[in-house]
Amino acid sequence: MFLASVKKLRSFGIIGMNQRNFGLISRYNPRHLYPLVDDKLKTKLLAQQAGITVPKLLGTLQYQHDVKSLKEILQPHAQFVIKPVKGSGGKGILVITEIEHNLYFKPSGDAVQLEDIERHVSNILSGLHSLGGKPDTVMIESLIQLDPVFADYSYEGIPDIRIIVLRGYPIMAMLRLTTHTSDGKANLHQGAVGVGIDIASGQALHAVQYGDPVSRHPDTRKSFSELAVPHWDKLLQLAAACYEMTGLGYLGADLVLDRDQGPMIIELNARPGLSIQVANAAGLAPRVAVIESLPSVDPDPQSRVDFSKSQFAHHAITHPTRLARTRKEDR
């Protein structure tokens, strides 16, 4: 039964962990380049050097004795985000959207005090949320402002866009929408909704929460059938340009749409997860095969985007769920 299910997944072009680790990550990502994306400060600097918009850096804390300067750093800002520089999976991120009467309010409306934030920062510095549990650095950034287009599709947080890039070509995309269950974080494991996005148009294709298909946002009840991501071409261009920026042949680019500044990069990942296939109800393997068949990489990011849009448009791909439905109807 297990073998049958593996065979079925392969027939849909689903890539598993082993294939990802050895066929993509090991093959295309030299280990010495990992620090460029595992360290969010280095990623931010790289992006700025490449002329790519990123959230504004408000301050950093490197050592435990720096915690006493936290109040002074936060004083001028009514909103901010605190992140571990070497964190992963959204762990350790604290978002503050409002300050009133010495109380700091999270997107959910829950209030914390300065000493709670100091404790959180101290935990980050000690490595509680870092890769491998090693001592970390704290990064304080400006808060991204929600683009009105997502007002009905997000709950207490900012949605982000994950684009998988192979050899500089965007091959699959999803939108991660925050929910009450996910505590306003765009993390699928915590209950955010993953929405597969058509590479050619930016239109929503398919959505899941905890791996199960959903047609509406669980909190706002807005239908995903009307959802389209604006500035789609610009988002694809930014993701494609990350190939030159990092030298990584296989990466996940996480982007957001800021109300005032438009598309910007918030994070890059040298080991992107595979849940994007679930959100799209489609496998990565056929798209990987298309890119790997190319004799060379086009040096122009826009040309690579145009190629991906023509190759991976939804109407040009046999969709697994549609295929299954067709076969059922044929019977």
Overview of the molecule:
With 331 residues, the protein is an alpha+beta fold. The chain folds into 2 domains: 13-38 and 147-319, D-amino Acid Aminotransferase, Chain A, domain 1 (2-Layer Sandwich); 56-141, Dna Ligase, domain 1 (2-Layer Sandwich). Helices cover 31% and strands 21% of the residues. The strands form 3 sheets. A 7-stranded antiparallel β-sheet has the order 12-11-10-9-8-13-14. Strands 1-7-2-3 form a 4-stranded antiparallel β-sheet. Helix 7 (232-246) packs across helix 10 (301-311). It is globular, with a radius of gyration of 20 Å. Residues 317-331 have low confidence and may be disordered.
Task: Characterize the main sheet.
Answer: 7 strands, antiparallel
Strand order of the largest sheet: 12-11-10-9-8-13-14
Kindly state the number of beta strands: 14
Uncertain segments are 317-331
Gyration radius over CA: 20 Å
Gap from first CA to last CA: 23 Å
The level of helicity is 25-40%
* Main CATH class of the largest domain: Alpha Beta
What can be said about this structure in brief?
With 331 residues, the chain is of the alpha+beta class.
Spell out the key features of this protein.
single chain, 331 residues, alpha+beta, D-amino Acid Aminotransferase, Chain A, domain 1, Dna Ligase, domain 1, 2 domains, 7-stranded antiparallel sheet, 4-stranded antiparallel sheet, 11 helices, 14 strands, 31% helix, disordered C terminus
